[in-house]
Amino acid sequence: MKRTFVLIHGAWHGGWCWDGVASKLRQAGHEVLTPTLPGHNPGDDRSGITFEDYASGVTQAVNSTSGGVVLAGHSSAGFMIQAAAPRCADKIERLVFHNAFVLGDGQAQFDLVPPEVSEGMTAAAKASPDNCVPIDEDFVRGALMAGDPKEIQDDLISKLNPQPLALFTTKVATKEFETLSIPKTVLFCKDDASLPPGAYLGMAQGLGEFDLVEMGGGHQTLFTDPDKIAEALQRIAD
Questions:
Q1: Strand extents, DSSP E, 22-130
Q2: Is 31 exposed, middle or buried (CB count within 10 Å of its CB: 0-12, 13-18, 19+)?
Q3: How confident is the model over 12-43, as pLDDT tens digits?
Q4: What is the rounded CA–CA span in Å between residue 74 and residue 15?
């Protein structure tokens, strides 16, 4: 059955991180949208980006379809789709949280990381000309892509953009999201070293009832092994 997938990228990334996944899904006959959100194109003015820009970007992408959408968010996009889903719920068939941050009402992403991390990232953003957190190559290589070949790490790093700080610091309202009856799936690559063990599945408990699909792979499996993620998304949609 033909499906419509809207795939949302997380911090520092753009829609390009889903290119391999989207290609595989399109080959199978599906419609796929991989929007790059405001501030995430090279050359964008990032200085005034707000969390509302992200939520609106996701909403617009879903509303541009005829409906029956499988809406998936990776990493920080987890709470973007929490914010956007109530605005376009009539078009969403299923929500997929892929190694994603899930927030409780009134929480920000920085509430879920150690203070020394949030303080360091905030200081780096304040020192930048556009209030953005720069790319930390050591973190990418040692956590997001731990164990991946250097040339693949280099490829991803070359595509990343500085991240507007507002994504991490904005307190997100999720009360409306909690009332939705849209089916939810957590797609979890269990070798992810970007957070302590159990962190992602711990956050996912805030979703209430959900289906769990687990597989091997790290945080960037959508980039390093896109066929694997595409196949999982097709199974989830079916």
A1: 31-33, 69-74, 92-98
A2: middle
A3: 999 999 999 999 999 999 999 999 999 999 88
A4: 11
pTM for this prediction: 0.97
| Inter-residue contact 7 to 72 (CB < 8 Å) | yes
Tokens in use for 120? 């360091």
Q: Within 13 Å, how many C-alpha atoms sit on residue 19's CB side?
A: 8
Question: Which one has a higher pLDDT value, 1 or 119?
Answer: 119
Structure confidence by residue, pLDDT tens digits, 123-136: 999 999 999 999 99
Question: Any residues with CB less than 8 A from the CB of 162 and at least 6 apart, and which?
Answer: 12, 46, 128, 130, 132, 133, 134, 135
Q: In angstroms, rounded to a whole number, what is the distance separating the alpha carbons of residues 86 and 90? A: 9
The domains located in the chain, with CATH, are 4-237 (3.40.50.1820)
Whole-angstrom distance, CA of residue 199 vs CA of residue 116: 17
